């Protein structure tokens, strides 16, 4: 009899171990809506049409990159189902598409939706729903506010950092500058303008001699450029999306205005802005970069850029290597893949945000040397470094050091 009791005891113990390991296995796999054993459903909103359609390249690059990831087996055995909709850079349309992605398509999160106005329109909705609004494709400073908006995170350097860097440059190299500013009349344009004024400090009032805002519904900004020239300014700060930035570069040349021209990074693409505006019209423009420029021969033998060129050749042959949006789409997709790898089998929305806020010295190799991605529970600004560059010939030339700008949310 004692032997029998022993066997029963051993059997019970074995059952207990089995139950523990089963629950352990179940505990390891955690899913929210949009994730399964085989799939991760990701939403995206892009301006494939409308005034900012040049940025549509970002969404197309992302789709091609995730297709490449899926062909190689996916992430932790799961394929990415990337659902991307057009909002034509219209905030009401962005709201409609976000609701569709969250409530109808039931995505796990929305990734890299583009535009400050569009993301602003869905900001409260995404946080109320507790659905990650991850790595938004806009540099507005407000995306770094983990306390008030824990479900929203930026990716690129913020706009205020960038114009503060231009302000520092002017104070040092051209302290008597007379500055004319062109800016898009929305949160994006105003954020850049605030950074410039903050950077100039007490001298902003005397140095900025003219400000002209424009609406994205205007067919041309030519009249604004003529007005800015008449202010007698010798520095032009150009805060515009690609279509209008190209128009500005052309018009400045046409009316033979010769200011020191600063162009915001979001329109520094050689392929979609500089080339259409004419290389001859863009000489000596200053901008800032955090990504390598595929038109720069110094990266021809760079291992990271070789991988990027191989991706274009094999997976995205219609992609233009000269279009900076292609490099952006590639770099931000690689960052997301890192986050999803870190998530392992815990694909809850909460863990997506937790891992996105736990990136330590991560680099996608299309970033400039010395620039790294770092995030934390109180730091939702992944990239906060930039380097100045000047346009010469048919490409940008980097100059100076990598500058760290730390502007809080």
Automatic annotation (TrEMBL):
The keyword Coiled coil does not apply. SUPFAM superfamilies: Periplasmic binding protein-like I (SSF53822). It comes from the Bacteria. Residues 1-27 form the signal peptide. The keyword Signal applies. Residues 39-392 form the Leucine-binding protein domain. Keywords: Signal. InterPro entries: Leu-bd, Peripla_BP_I. Belongs to the leucine-binding protein family. This is Amino acid/amide ABC transporter substrate-binding protein, HAAT family.
């Amino acid at each position: 009899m004692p032997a029998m009791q022993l066997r029963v005891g051993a059997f019970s113990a074995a059952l207990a171990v089995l139950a523990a390991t089963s629950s352990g296995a179940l505990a390891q796999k955690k899913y929210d809506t949009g994730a399964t054993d085989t799939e991760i459903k990701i939403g995206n909103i892009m301006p494939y049409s409308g005034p900012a359609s040049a940025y549509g390249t970002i969404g197309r690059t992302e789709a091609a990159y995730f297709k490449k990831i899926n062909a190689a087996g996916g992430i932790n055995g799961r394929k990415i189902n990337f659902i991307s909709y057009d909002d034509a850079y219209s905030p009401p349309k962005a709201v409609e598409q976000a609701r569709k992605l969250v409530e109808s398509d039931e995505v796990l999160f929305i990734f890299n939706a583009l535009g400050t106005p569009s993301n602003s329109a869905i900001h409260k909705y995404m946080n109320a729903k507790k659905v990650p609004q991850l790595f938004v494709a806009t540099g507005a400073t407000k995306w770094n506010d983990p306390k008030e908006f824990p479900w929203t995170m930026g990716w690129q350097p913020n706009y205020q950092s960038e114009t503060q860097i231009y302000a520092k440059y002017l104070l040092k190299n051209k302290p008597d500058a007379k500055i004319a500013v062109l800016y898009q009349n929305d949160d994006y344009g105003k954020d850049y303008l605030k950074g410039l004024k903050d950077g100039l400090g007490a001298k902003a009032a005397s140095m900025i001699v003219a400000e002209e805002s424009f609406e994205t519904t205007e067919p041309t900004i030519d009249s604004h450029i003529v007005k800015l020239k008449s202010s007698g300014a010798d520095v032009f700060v150009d805060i515009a999306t690609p279509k209008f930035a190209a128009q500005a570069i052309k018009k400045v040349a046409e009316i033979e205005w010769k200011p020191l021209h600063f162009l915001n990074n979001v329109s520094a693409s050689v392929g979609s802005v500089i080339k259409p505006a004419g290389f001859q019209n863009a000489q000596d423009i200053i901008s800032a970069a955090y990504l390598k420029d595929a038109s720069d021969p110094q990266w021809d033998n760079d291992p990271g850029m070789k991988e990027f060129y191989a991706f274009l050749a094999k997976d995205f042959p219609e992609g233009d290597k000269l279009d900076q949006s292609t490099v952006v789409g590639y770099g931000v997709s690689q960052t997301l893949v890192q986050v999803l790898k870190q998530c392992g089998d815990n694909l809850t929305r909460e863990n997506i945000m937790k891992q996105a806020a736990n990136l330590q010295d991560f680099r996608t190799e299309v970033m400039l040397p010395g620039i790294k991605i770092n995030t934390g529970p109180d730091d939702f600004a992944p990239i906060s470094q930039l380097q100045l560059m000047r346009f010469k010939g048919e490409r940008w030339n980097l100059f100076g050091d990598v500058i760290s700008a730390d502007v809080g949310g």
